Amino acid sequence: MNKVTPFLMFDDQLEAAIAFYTDTFPDSEIKTVARTGEDGPITSAEFVVGGQFFMGYNGGSYFTFSQGFSLFVNCKDQREVDEYWNKLVSAGATPSQCGWITDQFGVTWQIVPSRFMELIADKNPRKVQAVMEAMMTMVKLDVAALEKAYDAA
Hints:
Blueprint: E1 7-10, H1 14-24, E2 29-35, E3 42-49, E4 52-58, E5 70-75, H2 78-90, E6 94-95, E7 100-102, E8 108-113, H3 114-119, H4 125-136, H5 143-152
Parallel strand pairs: 1-4, 5-8
Antiparallel strand pairs: 2-3, 3-4, 6-7, 7-8
Helix pairs in contact: 4-5
């Protein structure tokens, strides 16, 4: 286990969430689960999503997620952005803006192409500003449109 591990508190959807997450992202697995009774629902679990270790618990409706915490998915290209975006939307996620999307369990994800991070690391502030302004108009990030804004600046 890592020194610091994200701990996600679900209402009662932990089992469905970890099944969806481990099916959606490669390098994922369910490590351990604790159940209420032999065949009862999962109460807590340790799992890996995309290589990141997590702990989860069904804590009841008292706990909710907010956009103050999100999971950043570094995508290698537009195809990968589209793949994760479509899987999340198909499962009931709600798109927001700027590559942010909140899944059916209330967890917010940032689906970001690595090219965006490269473009905003440029030393030319005009180019960075142009990319940021383009990104602010998007729901799902579009690599070609970001590059177009960069090239035009």
